Amino acid sequence: MRLYNTLSKKVEEFKPKIEGKVNLYTCGPTVYNFSHVGNLRTYIFEDVLQKSLEYLGYDVKRVMNITDVGHMTSDADFGEDKMLKGAKREGKTVYEIADFYTKAFLNDMSKLNIAIPSIIEKASANVDIYIKIIERLLEKGYAYISNGNVYFDVSKAKDYYALSGKNPDDLLVAVRETVEDDKAKKSPFDFGLWFTISKFENQAMKWDSPWGVGYPGWHIECSGIAIKEFGDFVDIHCGGVDNIFPHHTNEIAQSEGYLGHEWCNFWCHGAHLNDKTGKMSKSNGEFLTLSLLESKGYRPLDYRYFCLSSHYRNTLVFTYESLDIAKNALTKLKKRVQNLEDNGIVNESQFNDYNNKFKEALSNDLNTAQMLTSVYDVLKDSELDDSTKLSLIRSFDCVLSLNLDSVEDFGIDEEFKKYIEEKIKIRDVAKKNKDFALADSIRDELLEKKVKLLDKKEGTTYTIVD
Ligand SMILES: [Zn+2]
């Protein structure tokens, strides 16, 4: 598997610490609102990464955090508390807000066929670990107490600027733009590990600590949860490009300070989704959520197809026109797949040839566009019989997860679906009773209504013909 590593700034061969096993950490959402589709793009990329590794035979343990502890509107140490903002807006407690939006997030994940990580940890459930790490960082001189808060001293970190690849002067501009000047810090890059004093008056989630009642900084959550679940090393750490600085930069500084050695050698980041004006995740000022797209008649998997058609490291421009193209392409593709007849016999050598090409595409820094091309190549190869085609496409779909071989949705209404299913049941009984005249008449009757029945090994499905 060759992947672009943000740390080395090049595509490298990925090797896990323990052969065959991959510890994958992916930063999760802050649950104060619905996810916008730009964030969901990052989770789709991470899902493809996980499934590609699994396709190559790795056993992947994926951990994700859910940020439910108050944190800010930017990566800044100070700013408005996102959770509290959500709670105020909706007249609920922060716990209710966190619970509601966690469920909404997981629901979006499942609609997009994103595998739910094996371990999901709430930030608020792991405060004891953050305290343990912060105590050690203080002991070792990586952190200091100032004006009631505990800060990480970035001047003590080894290679603090390595991940972002930027020099301090450039970063300083970014820091000045996003972080309110905090006089308690020795350097503007220093970041909060524990706050007892902040500008939020009604911080709802607070815990006892050796430094007083307060709450953890955002960055320590991911280090704490990763160290709890994986111990000394993480094989691959992922997030969106906006996480590189300061979030992931700070995660490295505090984790390596705590552990006393290198922590994660492979960092992968997904690019943004912008609109035509370059703004993130909005279209004509509309906040783009998956439900909004659904309300406009798109299937969640149309959006997944749209994301897969471009490389995860390229900025993707969102327009409804390009989503339409994706939607039509996916519909046509599904119809072609569903027209394949399955007799269960697969040509092994042809299967292996195409499967190897597909593996090459995914091993080439997750070339999803090439992976999709493999599907089209299989479909148009007249040397392949239907069963081999179907077997290959089903196999590729373990990574693509586009439900290529399912009839769940042709934009037909529920009542008509029920009608078709009822007819299929009657026909099954007729076939069992060897009443082929009835079975054929049902088939013809449905065909008149543009429904073509497909008899497969596992039962009868259907497709809509034009
Ligand atoms: Zn994180």
Structure notes:
This protein is α/β, with parallel strands linked by helices. Helices cover 45% and strands 16% of the residues. It has three domains: 2-270, Rossmann fold, CATH 3.40.50; 282-400, no CATH class; 414-464, no CATH class. The protein has helices at residues 37-55, 82-90, 94-111, 127-139, 168-178, 218-230, 244-259, 290-295, 300-308, 320-338, 348-363, 368-380, 386-400, 414-432, 436-448; strands spanning 2-5, 10-13, 21-26, 59-66, 119-122, 143-146, 149-152, 191-195, 215-216, 234-240, 264-270, 273-274, 282-283, 286-287, 316-317, 451-456, 459-464. Strands 5-4-3-10-11 form a five-stranded parallel sheet, with helices on both faces. The protein has a four-stranded antiparallel sheet with strand order 6-7-8-9. The chain is elongated. The model is unreliable at 72-78 (pLDDT under 50). The structure holds zinc ion (ZN).
What's the layout of helices and strands?
Elements: E1 2-5, E2 10-13, E3 21-26, H1 37-55, E4 59-66, H2 82-90, H3 94-111, E5 119-122, H4 127-139, E6 143-146, E7 149-152, H5 168-178, E8 191-195, E9 215-216, H6 218-230, E10 234-240, H7 244-259, E11 264-270, E12 273-274, E13 282-283, E14 286-287, H8 290-295, H9 300-308, E15 316-317, H10 320-338, H11 348-363, H12 368-380, H13 386-400, H14 414-432, H15 436-448, E16 451-456, E17 459-464
Helix pairs in contact: 2-3, 4-6, 4-7, 6-7, 9-10, 11-12, 11-13, 12-13, 14-15
